[in-house]
Design goal:
MetI-like fold; 262 residues
């Protein structure tokens, strides 16, 4: 084995440790039986998960985040699919402009985007929940769009042409021929959008209000006012469990190889 290969494996190992170690520590600490944050924990218990659901603000924020992530992921995937179809099949200035606009949220700092959306929503007198939903869709759309366009670029349009030559219209041929083939990319895009929405903090920080607070914002506020850190650790563990569950479900239908490729 060459020195370059060994060095590459060493760098990958260090990166994995830096990424996974904090997550593992939070997961272990969330099951602590102690009264304060310490590692290794003083015994194991589910008391902090029970305490999490007993706090109405945390419980409501958790339910809101789940619903908002599901709705935002579905909406951004649908928009990403429509935008991806147009961009991959048209080579004109509007297609280039459309792709640039969809990817733009990845370029702009989240704080600036959140402030801009706040000013816009106040100008048009939009409610907190609809504005928060639109903001999440804008943030999630680039991730769904990129995963879907990857599948569309590798799709052979002659299949659609063959279907249309046999009497199927454009919409029917797309639903019955194209969509089943690019389905792994669509599902992967939905997963990425769900994860991004479920953990969104920076932009949502400007757009939440009384009674409409997502879980990351509630966790942030709870820590600010010196709440018990183990409750926040339990909340973080729940976020990880939800994301892992979504990953397992998507892997079951798509497969790990195709998911990673997208």
């Amino acid at each position: 084995m060459s020195i370059g290969s060994l060095l590459l494996r060493f760098v990958v190992l260090i990166a994995m440790i830096l990424i996974l170690a904090p997550i593992v520590i939070v997961l272990v600490v969330a099951f602590s039986a102690g009264e304060s944050l310490s590692f290794p924990p003083q015994g194991f218990s589910l008391r902090w998960f029970v305490a999490f659901f007993q706090i109405s603000e945390m419980r409501n924020a958790f339910i809101l985040s789940i619903g908002l992530a599901l709705a935002s992921a579905c909406a951004s995937t649908l928009l990403g699919l429509m935008g991806g179809v147009y961009v991959t099949r048209h080579r004109n200035r509007f297609a280039t402009l459309l792709e640039t606009l969809i990817i733009a949220p990845l370029v702009f700092p989240a704080i600036i985007l959140g402030l801009a959306l706040l000013l816009l929503f106040r100008t048009v007198h939009m409610g907190i929940l609809p504005g928060l939903f639109i903001a999440h869709v804008v943030i999630c759309l680039p991730y769904a769009f990129r995963a879907i366009t990857t599948s569309l670029h590798s799709f052979d349009t002659t299949y659609e042409e063959a279907g249309q030559s046999l009497g199927a219209g454009p919409i029917r041929s797309f639903i019955q021929i194209t969509l089943p083939i690019i389905w792994p990319g669509v599902l992967s895009g939905w997963l990425f959008a769900f994860i991004v929405s479920f953990g969104e903090l920076n932009t949502a920080l400007f757009l939440t209000g009384p009674g409409v607070v997502t879980l990351p914002i509630e966790m942030f506020s709870y820590l600010q006012f010196q709440g018990n850190q183990l409750v926040v650790a339990a909340a973080s563990a729940l976020q990880v469990f939800i994301i892992v569950l979504a990953l397992l479900l998507v892997e079951r239908f798509v497969g790990a190889r195709q998911l990673v490729q997208r």
